[in-house]
Amino acid sequence: MEILPHNLQEYLDEHCEPEPELLKSINRETYLKVLKPHMLSGHYQGRVLSFISKMMQPKLILEIGTFTGYATICLAEGLTEDGTIHTIEVNRELEEMLSSHFESTNVSKKIKLHFGQAEQIIGTLPYNDFDIVFIDADKKNNYTYFELVLDKVRSGGLIIIDNVLWKGKVFGEEKDADTQLIRKLNDSIAVDTRVEKLILPVRDGLMIIRKK
């Protein structure tokens, strides 16, 4: 999933904050027990998300796509004492694992887990002041999620979208449907005057969007 050369990524991993032991355990368990374990954020991206969250000191976070909870926990590290992260997962089979992972942390009371289709659940959340939204779910709906959450983010808040470099395919010659969708997402947000934006070459590409 990494865009950067392996030796450079190893160097970056070695020179950021160490991966917490609990997250190491979640990483190992995900690779042992779950299909498509590469969907996990992992050490370096997890520290990036944690760092951003700690700088923002959010009271309210929305995550679309929980998977095994790795990124959820990273984002929750920066929450205020009374803060909450709402996280949405479509796969109910992950419920037992997620409950176990969250209960092992000191932020479990700050995590509200929702199961179901994200586009339906987002509309039921009675907030319009999210500090951070992290979109890491089914890629074909990324732009739909972006539009759904934009009005729910406060001015100055962040929307973070994962996998926007799509293994480097977005700047290559590939013309498959998934790559075309990611290109369209990136191109649409690049000219959207409601937000400021940049892409970080972290893992498979993180787009950081700031609502004006």
End-to-end separation: 31 Å
| Shape annotation | globular
Give unreliable regions as ranges.
Answer: none
State which percent range the strand residues make up.
15-25%
Written as H for each helix and E for each strand, in order along the chain, the element string is HHHEHEHEHEHEHEE
- What is the spatial order of strands in the main beta sheet? 3-2-1-4-5-7-6
Give average pLDDT, whole number: 96
Search tags:
212 residues, seven-stranded mixed β-sheet, globular, single chain, alpha/beta, 8 helices
Describe the protein.
38% of the residues lie in helices and 21% in strands. The protein is α/β, with parallel strands linked by helices. It has a seven-stranded mixed β-sheet, sandwiched between helices. It is globular and about 45 Å long. The two termini are 31 Å apart.
